[in-house]
Amino acid sequence: MPTQSKSLHLPFGEDKNAPWYGKDILSVKQFAREDLEYVFGVAHEMRGMVERVGTFDLLKGKILANLFYEPSTRTSSSFTAAMERLGGSVIPINEVKYSSVSKGESLPDTIRTLECYADVIVLRHPETGSAAIAAKAAKKPVINAGDGVGEHPTQALLDAFTIFEELGVGEIDGMTVTMLGDLKYGRTVHSLARLLSLYNVKINYVSPEILRMPQEVMEEVAAKGIPQAEFSTLQEVLPQTDVLYVTRVQQERFENQKDYEKVKGAYVIDPQVMQAAKQEMIVMHPLPRVGEISPEFDEDPRAAYFRQMEYGLYVRMALLAMVLGKA
Ligand code: NCD
Q1: For the segment 180-200, what is each residue's pLDDT rounded down to a tens digit?
Q2: What whole-number distance in Å separates Cα of residue 262 and Cα of residue 312?
Q3: Fewest CB atoms less than 10 Å from the CB: which of 26, 55, 147, 218?
Q4: Torsion of CA 76, 80, 86, 87, to 10 degrees
């Protein structure tokens, strides 16, 4: 469910009664199943509009502050593209070292600054909970683009949208989703497992022992009555898998680099491994990949990870339009 609406000054033409108007997007826990249907409906329309006209003026005159304290290619550029395809513009702050952050400015002060100039703020930050701190400081909507090992809600929404678009609406129910790789530090799988627990899915976790899915996430998913099981090898579950969600081992989160060296090449998806999988299934990855999926698999129709990036554009267009009262 959306959190309480922030009181925004209302320029002409915005619908303050729109359900997500002025809301922050901090966690997938804010979304119920009907909210997802709504997001996916809007994203689907955005896709149609981009295919037909490319760019249109839904958010003309609106400004997004894209504030990234951690590296990003897809998330940052897809939010930029989303805003510009909707006729808005972007203040990009990708290198916080060139901003006042390097002078020691606090996150709340940086947020208060940016909201003087922008209508919505997208934030990526290395600390879990930072998006919530930013949202508390801000009167304008804040969208969490990854808070440390915490959550990455817009990625999970685009991941779920990818499953819908690729495998057919309504078919998330009944699916077996296998998450592979770094389930401990990977924020995308933390968000995705929680989000998928809104459906009748079965979730498998395949990881090295030291990178298992956090207990906290598994307990939340279990509370929704979702069957989950943990494995150390992919072979045990690959033949039953409908969605294989591969992740990168998050080197930057390891306290001890020797531990990283031990697990970095633990799983590699290639055409040979995929012989054991169904023909009707998809392989997803939030990207970047650093060896977990061989490029030799890219031409396989089941390789959905490049299409997944494109779905991200439509979902982020939908979310921006929603929080700015235009959807
Ligand atoms: C992910 C992230 O930043 O959490 N990337 C992304 O947003 N597409 C995954 C990763 O970095 O491994």
Answers
A1: 999 999 999 999 999 999 999
A2: 32
A3: 55
A4: 160
Ligand 1 centre to CA of 32 (Å) is 24
Strand order across the 63-68 sheet: 89-93, 63-68, 120-125, 142-147
Cβ–ligand 1 distance for 228 under 6 Å, the answer no
Exposed/middle/buried for 11, CB within 10 Å: 0-12, 13-18, 19+?
exposed
Q: Pick the atom of ligand 1 nearest to 309's CA.
A: 8
How far is it, in rounded angstroms, from Cα 53 to Cα 300? Answer: 30
What is the 290 CA–ligand 1 centroid distance (Å)?
A: 12
Nearest C-alpha neighbor of 302 from the set 214, 206, 238: 238
Domains of the chain: 28-151+310-323 (3.40.50.1370), 153-309 (3.40.50.1370)
Tell me, what amino acid is at 157? L
Residue 119 CB burial class (10 angstroms; 0-12, 13-18, ≥19): buried
Q: Tell me the torsion sign for CA atoms 239, 241, 245, 247.
A: negative
Decide: 142 and 95 in contact? Cβ < 8 Å.
no
The answer to whether the pTM exceeds 0.90 is yes
Q: Is there an atom of ligand 1 within 6 Å of 27 CB?
A: no
pLDDT in tens, 132-144: 999 999 999 999 9
Index of the ligand 1 atom closest to the CA of residue 247: 12
C-alpha span between 224 and 197 (Å, rounded): 6
Asked if 37 and 173 touch (Cβ cutoff 8 Å), the reply is no
Looking up tokens 């061989």, which residue turns up?
294
The answer to whether 191 touches 197, Cβ cutoff 8 Å, is no
The reply to whether ligand 1 has any atom less than 6 angstroms from the CB of 75 is: yes
